[in-house]
Each structure stands twice: as C-alpha cells, then as structure tokens.
Amino acid sequence: MLLYALVPLAYLLGSISSAIIVCRLMGLPDPRTQGSNNPGATNVLRIGGKKAAAITLMGDALKGLLPVLVAHALNATPLILALTGMAAFLGHLYPVFFGFKGGKGVATALGVQFGLYWPIGLSIAAIWLFVAKVMNVSSLAALIAMALAPLVVWWFWPAPELIIMQVVLSIILFWRHRSNIQNLLRGKEGRISEEGGK
C-alpha cells in the first residue's frame, strides 16, 4: 500500500511551485504575471536574476528526484517508478495548490530522470548543456534533450514501462513548449545570454 501511496504523494509534492514560493520569499513579482507568465526557472531568471533562478531550478528538480528515490528505496517495480515519476511531473505542470497552472516541466523531468538512474539524468543533462552552449537557446536545448530522452532511457534501462513513461513525458513537454516552438520557427525565441544577469 505504501508503494501505491507514492503516486498521489508525488503529485502533491510536484504541485508545490518552487517559482512562486521563491519569488514571494525574495520579494519578486509573481512569475505568473511577469515575463512569459510561466512559473519556471527560466522566467524567474528574467524577473529575478541568476540566484532566484538557481534556487527555483533546484526546487523543481528535487520534486522529481525525491519521490523516485523513495520508490527505489522501497524496491518499487518499474511500473511504480514510472507512475511516481509521471505523477511528480504532472503535479508541476498542473499543481492542485495553484489552480492547476504550473510550469513547463523540464527541471522536474530531469529530476525524475536522475532519480530513475543517474547515468540517464546525467546523459540528458549533458545533451541539454551541449545544445544550450552551442545554440544559446534554453527551450531548444530542452526540446532536443527531451526528444532524445526515450532513447537514453532505452539504452540504460530498457524496461517498457520506463520507456513509455519517457515517451509520454516528452510528448507533453513538447505540447507545453508549443509557443516556444512557434517562436523558434519565427526566429524570435529569446537567447540565454539575453536573460537576467543579476
């Protein structure tokens, strides 16, 4: 029973918005009303600078990491690991505590991937960092990393449940980034070097 309780608990943990909490504690504007109106680390970077963004990023990643690590500690099957990770991810996207209006989920997804197996998370993070360094566009780096993520999961841990979870997670991430994709196609997507420098 404890294993199955992990799924709703992971969703509730995912529903805690790091961006909103960090901005409130640091006296910054609500990220849902500034910049891209997205409660995520990239938008916090725009309105509050690097320190606030780094704290937000860490909080969002931990929401995905911790539930999956707990599931591992309880010897969960790949199915329970997949459901736990997906629940944390969906909690971030559709938080019950904030009117079901959350972020885009990249950091939380990465936390889930590190929780599953650290080489999976490290590989996907390395892809993101490489593309971000070369292309200087955060959303493009995230999209490419998550497009390749199912292959990374298959390579390191080819459990069908985990591969399916990652495919679904990647599809949802692309859907949540549809405005970014439109901006990329128009050549109007912001560059990392243009974001906040505080």
Q: Summary?
A:
The chain has 198 residues and is mainly α. The protein has helices at 2-14, 18-25, 41-48, 50-73, 78-93, 106-116, 118-135, 138-156, 160-176, 178-186. The termini are far apart.
Overall description:
The chain has one domain. The protein has ten helices and no strands. It has helices at 2-14, 18-25, 41-48, 50-73, 78-93, 106-116, 118-135, 138-156, 160-176, 178-186. It is globular and about 45 Å long. The mean pLDDT is 92.
Keywords:
mainly alpha; 198 residues; globular; single chain; 72% helix
Q: Tally the structural domains.
A: 1
Helix content: over 70%
Structural class: mainly alpha
How much β-strand is present in the residues? under 5%
Order of helices and strands: HHHHHHHHHH
So how many helices? 10
Quaternary structure: single chain
Q: How would a crystallographer describe the biggest sheet?
A: none
Q: Give the overall shape.
A: globular
Mean pLDDT: 92
Distance between the termini: 47 Å
Counting DSSP E segments of at least 2 residues, the number of strands comes to 0
Name the poorly predicted regions: none
Compute the gyration radius: what is it? 16 Å
Set out the fold topology.
Elements: H1 2-14, H2 18-25, H3 41-48, H4 50-73, H5 78-93, H6 106-116, H7 118-135, H8 138-156, H9 160-176, H10 178-186
Helix pairs in contact: 1-4, 1-5, 2-4, 3-4, 4-5, 4-6, 5-6, 5-9, 6-7, 7-8, 8-9
